[in-house]
Every structure is written in structure tokens, then in C-alpha cells.
Write a structure and sequence with these properties.
It contains 1 helix and 28 strands. By secondary structure, the chain is mainly beta. The strands form 7 sheets. The chain has a 5-stranded antiparallel beta sheet, with no helix packed on it. It has a 5-stranded antiparallel beta sheet with strand order 2-25-24-23-22, with no helix packed on it. The chain has a single domain, classed as TolB, C-terminal domain (Neuraminidase), CATH 2.120.10.
Length: about 350
Amino acid sequence: MSHLPRSAFAIPLLAMLAACATAEAPPQHSPAIGRLTTFDASFQDVVAADARIEKIAEGFTWSEGPAWIRAGGYLLFTDVPENTLYRWSERDGLSVFLKPSGYDGPDLGALREPGANGLFAEPSGTVLMADSGTRIVARLDPATKRKTALASSYGGHRFNSPNDVVRRSDGAVFFTDPPYGLKDLDDSPVKELKFNGVYRVDPDGTVHLLDDGLGFPNGIALSPDERTLYVSNSDPARPVWMAYSLDARGAVLDKRVFADASDLVGEASPGLPDGMAVSGDGRIFATGPGGVLVFDADGKRLGRIETGTAVSNCAFGDEGRTLYMSSHTFLARIRVKATGLGFPR
């Protein structure tokens, strides 16, 4: 055995300990923002009281439509006024994925929001896109970045500006069509439909109108059993979420007001009913006045996740327990106890 000074052993030992400490150190967190508000004690079963809301990217005009791409482990989301589709991941950070994301042509002076809006990640790896600027519902292949139109008109008239989209397991696609993408909204001279609708597109391409009675149909989602379609109405005069009972074909059997946010609307609570995400147990994470409102399956208000500004949309990502939130000029996230619909529980 060698008889070396004790310092000779100390140097490699310290180096080894430092390497271990570096390997096991937790990742650096993004800035913490916002707060949680509890309306019902059961909210703690959904979101831990000490859950941290993080701002993970910023610098957008109006971020929208997040969708988690499980095959690649990244998030896609849009900036609608800037006509840009972004990609974000923990490993790679933020990058432009597609620009223009929507309308690709000369400025005709008719569009208020030329970009794509809501996104929905399909099991096959493709992404459904509510293309507000092009005024179509499309399918995007992330591998090639090619876009294929699924529907562009109803009754011979162009859609207004498709806003959000969701797909049922049988291939039926449901979407909303408010006038937000058009300058002057309902008074736009290029608006061809007299109403703002909720639609279904069958796998064969046939388009069906489900409701023409909402002033500003916006976010859209399906219940876990796919028998209920949820639609938000981003109308300050009627800030509600509707629930439509569907038959096997996807036709509406009846409808009702699922929840009402009239008591929350005001300057202290920015935002209106907008995008949604559903957990596997049927809870609804619905963006609305003040942030993301969490409802149980009966429409009971449980709590609110507040980022400090209007939240336009949200989606589950990672392994299903991270809620990503497009929050006006930035992107945020929070870890929750619920698991997103479609993720292993």
C-alpha cells in the first residue's frame, strides 16, 4: 500500500463529490408567477396548495392553442396576430416552427388575426389546426410541415375564422367559428355567414352545423366518454360554457349551460371563457376570467389557476400532469395532481 499524504486523497474525493452534486442538482426553475384561488375544498385534490406557476417563455403578442406532441416530447403553440407557430421543449427551449402559420398571401386588409389559432394533437402524430387566417380547418404533418385542408365552407359560404378544434376517437372533428380573425368582426365585409357556428366534420368531409346561437363560440373540448361536447362563449354579455349531449353520430341531442362566469367578469379578472383541457377523470380546466377555472364534471367551480393576465388556452403535457397555459404575452406551466385525458393514469 502506498503511503501518500492525506491531501492526495482529498483532491480526487472532493472532485468526485462535486460531480455527484452536479448530477443530482435539481434543474433551475423558471420565474414563479401568479397564485391559486380556492372556491371549494376539493380543489386541493386537483392542484396542490404549494404548486408553482412558472413562466417558461415570453415575448408574444397573443399566445394561443397549445398542443403537446407526445412522440417528440415538445409543445406547439401559436401567436395568432403574428402568424407564427412556435415549438418549445425543456431541452431545446423556444424556436419558430412554422411562419406563416396561417394565411400565406398578400395583405388584403381584411384580416385581424392572420395566423393559426387552436391546435389538437392527433394520436397518429399529426396536428389539427383551426387556421383562423386562411379560414379553414386543416391537418398539419409536423414532420413535413405540410398542411391539408379538411373543411373550408358551409352551405357554399366560407367560414369566418376557425378558432379551436378537437377530434373524437372515430375521426369526427368538432370546431368553433367566431369572427375574431376578421377586421370589424361581425361587421366585416368579407364575412359570408350570418352567424358564428359550432360544427362537426365527418371523416368523409361532410360539414354539419351544430349550433348557430352563440355570439362568440371559442374553446372546445370533449368529455372522457365523448358523449358531451363543451364549448365556451367568449362574450362579455354572456360568458358561459355550454354542454352538448351527442349521439353516436355526433349530432346534438340537447344542450345546457354547463357553467357561468358572469360574476367574475371585470377589470380585476382579465379574460373570458376561452380554451379548455379535460382530465381523465372528467374535470374541466377552462380558461376564463382571472385565469384557468377548474370545474368538476357537474360544473361545480373548484378553483382557479391565476397567471396574472388573461389565459387564452391550456393543454396537458409531459407525462400528463403538467398543464401548459398560453397566457397573453407568455407561456406558463404548473404541475397538477390530475392527469390529462389520453395520458396513461
